[in-house]
Design goal:
Layout lengths: L1 H18 L1 H9 L5 H20 L1
């Protein structure tokens, strides 16, 4: 049971990270300037994921 929960959580984390792939590519085209806005947005999404996980 615990293993299945762990697999499901890892799957959701993987999907969250893949959802930012396009944004990472676009930020790379701006020679890194786009990361000024992208990194805080990603961190907020990860914090929201963790908060949802803890509840």
């Amino acid at each position: 049971m615990g293993f299945l929960i762990s697999v499901r959580i890892n799957y959701r984390i993987c999907l969250l990270k893949l959802s930012f792939l396009g944004w990472d590519i676009l930020a790379g085209f701006t020679l890194g300037i786009g990361y000024i806005w992208l990194n805080p947005y990603k961190q907020a999404a990860y914090m929201g994921f963790y908060a949802d996980l803890v509840d």
